[in-house]
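Dear colleagues,

For the upcoming journal club I promised to circulate an example of a predicted protein-ligand complex. I picked one with zinc ion because it came up in last month's discussion. The inputs are reproduced below in full, followed by the predicted structure.
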Amino acid sequence: MPIFEFQCEECGEIFEELILGGKLEEIKCKKCKSSKVYKLISQVAYKSEGKFVSSGGSGCSSCSGGTCSSCH
Ligand SMILES: [Zn+2]
C-alpha cells in the first residue's frame, strides 16, 4: 500500500495519505486544508515478514541481522 507521511507547512500537522496514481500535488492538509504539504522522507520502519526493517540502517534486505557482516 503506497501510504506516505506528509507534513503541512502551514500548521505543522503530520498526517498519512494513501497515494493512488502518484497524485502528490492533490494532497491537502487534513487539518487546515492547505496544499503546502511536503512528503516526509523519514526513518520509516516498516514491517516485513514479521521483522522490523529500518530503512537507512546498516543492514540490508539480504541479511536480517542488521550488520551485513555475512553479505558484504
Ligand atoms: Zn495544515
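Two points we might discuss: The two ends are 30 Å apart (CA to CA). The domain at 3-54 is CATH 2.20.28 (Rubrerythrin, domain 2).

See you all on Thursday,
B. R.
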